[in-house]
Amino acid sequence: MDDLKYGTRDKRGNWAPSKPLEIAPFWRGQFRNLGQWFLGYLWPHNTIFMAVTLAYWYFVLPDWAVMQTISWDWALRLYAVNAGGVFLLYGAVEFFFYIRRVQGTRFKYNAKFPADQRSDVFWFKNQNIDNALRTFLVSIPIWTLVEVAVLWAFANGYSNAVDPGTHWLWLTILLLLTPAIHEVHFFCIHWLIHQQPLYRWIHSIHHNSINPSPWSSMSMHPVESTAFFGEMAWHLLLPSAPFVALYQLTSTAYGAIVGHIGFDKLEMGENLAPDSHAYTHYLHHKYFEVNYGGDGLIPLDKWFGTWHDGTKEADEQMKERFRRKKERLAKQAT
Ligand SMILES: [Zn+2]
Ligand SMILES: [Zn+2]
């Protein structure tokens, strides 16, 4: 596929889409294409996460009586499934697009591949080894811990769970709103850990990967992993149900890869190249203090002036904001 039909490539070989990023249409007063937007909302990401959640629900979770007591038995089983799932999904993207490099640098934002660059900031000076170790040794255990704790709380009635038979309509709405809950939760914790000294202590680990790849998605400090996966606990406070809580967690965990794919489209056939939706978060890794949230379903970045849509104008606005911040800090120091 000719990626220059969809974007431009600079002298260094870095590719950028020509179409600016857009927040959800209803915030821009556009209601005509809502049906199409809604289909894109469901397919493919959220449908895949739903399929994964159903697989967990029917084939992985033990009986509720078992989950009333926390034990290594089911906790380790959940860890094995979580680690296996991430290995398969993240590993497949890594294998095809970063190891075998099936589409070269077509649609790739940063022309370089992490494996070709060594840096002292990483364990063993290697981004892939560092990121993969942090994923399997830190983030997946914490994901599993949150999962076990919340399921245990549901099993023992420490929640505001409602009956799915009676409240099916509300639970369906809540299920559809889980990406919005994710976006608000993620924006808040993410903005917070960008403030000093939290950034230095915690979040700088994730930002060591300026050129993110699939393994960067969960390469986090344990405090960040806890806050990130802790999103599931909202469903103990809300009138919710265990399945909705599980969907929230599953889509957060498997969805973390989305912003770190590094390619704008993944070529899967002659005329099939789905959008990755990675550009919003790629710009965050490139510029740090923009796009704290997601795709603009709840456009908090737009409202707080930190939205970067990839255009030159957004670039100028960002530079102006950075200049004002520098001046403010300089004034405070005198
Ligand atoms: Zn990231
Ligand atoms: Zn960040």
From TrEMBL:
Residues of the Fatty acid hydroxylase domain: 177-306
GO biological process: lipid biosynthetic process
Compartments in which it is found: Membrane
Transmembrane helix is among the record's keywords: yes
Coiled coil feature spans: none
Record-linked InterPro entries: Fatty_acid_hydroxylase, Sterol_Desaturase_Related
Transmembrane portions of the chain: 38-59, 79-99, 135-155, 167-193
A single GO cellular-component term on record: membrane
Principal location class: membrane
Keyword Transmembrane helix: yes
Protein name stated in the entry: Sterol desaturase family protein
Organism the protein comes from: Stagnihabitans tardus
Biological classification of the source: Bacteria, Pseudomonadati, Pseudomonadota, Alphaproteobacteria, Rhodobacterales
